[in-house]
Input
Amino acid sequence: MIDDLKSLLHIDGWQPIETAPKDGTPILLLQGSIIGLFYYGTEPELVNVHGEPMGPTWIGTVIVSDLVHNDTGRKMIKIIGSEATHWAPLPALPAKADRP
Output
């Protein structure tokens, strides 16, 4: 399964991060060999180092990483949110007949 997810690194359609939608649409974000499923928005429980609510940012989960094994979630938000270089739309789901 990890190899299948790593194949996302080679999908067509990666675009510069500056063109990513910021309307809450879920997308894939890429930072080096890290890929995450993210959306741009706010979450009330996310606070900055001063305990103040964070403004809009990329929120989501890392799904593929050669650098960090079995490590996903909030602590990666700042890394991928602030340093992501590319984005891609989510791939289409397989036809219903092809799904398990």
Remarks:
- The CA atoms of residues 62 and 72 lie 5 Å apart.
- The helical segments are 2-6, 77-83.
- Strands lie at 15-16, 27-31, 34-41, 57-65, 86-89.
- The chain has two helices and five strands.
